[in-house]
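A reminder from the course coordinator: this example appears on the midterm review sheet, so study it carefully.

Given structure:
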């Protein structure tokens, strides 16, 4: 009898441990067919092969998912798929052909806690004949609740960062289309790996097509490392294509650093197409640093292109009221260009502030 009780106890402990392992590995991933493949004696590629065999033995369909944990870089926490883990904020993951779809159900804005330091890299595998190919990928917040619709999911634990980085890099190299490559770039970018910024730079400066280069530039800005700034500066110094220059402008903005601001200022004052300069001016306005505001003032006084001056007025109008209203009032009172004055008055008219009413009163009652 004692032996039977002992066996039952051991059995219950094993069940408990397995459930704990699964809940720890799943961390908010819900679905009917979630299987843990976490044998640390196997390489990541071997775990993937094991998932392929398990899928083929049990299912007749052509698609399945694999996923594993990735420790992320601190710099790009504000990018990617973020959903909090409360009951009324569940994301539903499904697929349509070779595309992964994520439907978000949120009651209010997301928040960011410690659980955002770790992501789940999720890969969509497609079976064609006897061969498998990864055709899509996304990164998920490891602390969120996701429901997997209609797809088996094989969780592969937490491979080492070198192994994961090289695995996704190989997927990028062997991908058959641009859409897949763009997805793999975003997964590579989250890796806390010494070669992440270098990979993004090589892609951005290569000849794989402008959309892939723009994607790599975006993630260079998101990584926010010293290496990223160096590589972005190097790209900016030689950039001639307007779409690339505009991508670099946004990347310098997302760096959120003094050096990034200096580059925005340099571009805003530079001899480049006006549409790109307008972008730099807009993001300077969003940054609202002292240097950026001084540049906007300088553009208003000295730039010869009316569209550029108009962009500067708009950028100023988007600053906090305590910054924008005094500058706009100064433009109305002292700027000699009547069109610029009208633009400033228009944006002041959107402000609900006593200083604006006093200005309009002084003008109207002269």
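Designed residues:
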């Amino acid at each position: 009898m004692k032996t039977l009780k002992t066996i039952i106890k051991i059995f219950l402990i094993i069940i408990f441990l397995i459930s704990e392992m699964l809940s720890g590995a799943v961390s908010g991933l819900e679905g009917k067919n979630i299987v843990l493949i976490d044998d640390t004696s196997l390489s990541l590629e071997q775990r993937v092969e094991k998932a392929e065999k398990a899928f083929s033995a049990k299912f007749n369909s052509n698609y399945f998912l694999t996923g594993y944990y990735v420790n992320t870089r601190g710099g790009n926490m504000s990018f990617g798929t973020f959903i909090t883990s409360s009951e009324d904020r569940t994301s539903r993951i499904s697929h349509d052909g070779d595309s992964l779809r994520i439907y978000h159900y949120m009651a209010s804005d997301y928040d960011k806690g410690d659980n955002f330091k770790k992501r789940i890299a999720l890969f969509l595998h497609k079976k064609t004949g006897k061969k498998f190919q990864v055709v899509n990928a996304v990164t998920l917040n490891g602390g969120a609740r996701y429901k997997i619709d209609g797809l088996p999911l094989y969780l592969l634990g937490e491979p080492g960062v070198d192994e994961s980085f090289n695995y996704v890099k190989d997927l990028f190299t062997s991908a058959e289309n641009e859409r897949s490559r763009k997805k793999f770039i975003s997964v590579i970018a989250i890796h806390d790996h010494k070669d992440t910024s270098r990979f993004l730079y090589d892609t951005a400066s290569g000849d794989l097509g402008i959309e892939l280069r723009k994607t790599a530039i975006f993630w260079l800005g998101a990584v926010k490392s010293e290496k990223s700034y160096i590589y972005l500066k190097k790209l900016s110094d030689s950039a001639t294509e307007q779409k690339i220059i505009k991508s670099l402008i946004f990347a310098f903005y997302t760096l959120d650093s003094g050096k990034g601001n200096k580059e925005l200022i340099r571009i805003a004052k530079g001899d480049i197409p006006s549409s790109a300069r307008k972008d730099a001016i807009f993001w300077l306005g969003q940054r609202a640093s002292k240097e950026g505001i001084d540049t906007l003032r300088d553009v208003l006084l000295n730039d010869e292109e009316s569209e550029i001056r108009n962009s500067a007025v708009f950028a100023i109008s988007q600053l906090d009221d305590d910054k924008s209203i005094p500058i706009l009032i100064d433009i109305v009172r002292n700027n000699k260009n009547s069109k610029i004055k009208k633009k400033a008055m228009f944006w002041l008219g959107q402000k609900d502030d006593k200083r604006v009413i006093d200005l309009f009163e002084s003008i109207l009652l002269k």
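The beta strands are 29-30, 34-36, 63-71, 91-96, 99-104, 118-128, 131-141, 146-148, 153-155. Residues 25-173 form one domain.
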